[in-house]
Amino acid sequence: MNTKEVQTTKEVQTTVAAIDLNALKEKHGEIFRVVVADEVVKHDPYMVPTTNEEEIENGVVAYIRKPTSKEINYAMSKMPQMIEAGKVILKSCFVAGDRRVIDEPGMFTAGALQCIELLEIRQAQLKKV
Fold first, then answer.
1. Which burial class, exposed, middle or buried, applies to 104 when counting CB atoms under 10 A from its CB (0-12, 13-18, 19+)?
2. What domain of life (predicted)?
3. Each residue's pLDDT tens digit, 28-66
4. Are the C-beta atoms of 65 and 93 separated by less than 8 Å?
């Protein structure tokens, strides 16, 4: 890694640490944190997912706001490709944090998979009466 990359990473980390979550909540309402691992990990189907927040904290952090109904509708139009729906949410609702979550394809995909959870899909039923 060259010096320029190290400086950029330090600047980004400082910026993320300096984010005022209370100000974001006042401006945008509900805020969610998306954390993406900074390094690529080979998929292991037998690995138990971590629930330890300290390990997750070492990743790249982005903050997103709750999507509007228009953004949800647009994302839902992409639902046959679930990841595309998550990308819509991540990109349109990003409010602060490390832009690598959007700019780097691998991080964008991982973050988008997490953002799918914001699409609250409820089960419904229609019956003729």
1. middle
2. Bacteria
3. 989 999 988 877 766 666 666 555 554 555 688 999 999
4. yes
The answer to whether the beta carbons of residues 88 and 74 sit under 8 Å apart is: yes
Lowest mean pLDDT, pick from 14-18, 26-30, 65-69: 14-18
Query: What is the arrangement of strands in the sheet containing 94-97, beginning at the earlier edge strand?
Result: 31-36, 60-65, 94-97
Write down the H helix ranges in the chain: 3-17, 21-28, 53-57, 69-77, 82-93, 100-103, 105-115
As a whole number of angstroms, the distance between CA 50 and CA 54 comes to 10
pTM over 0.90: no
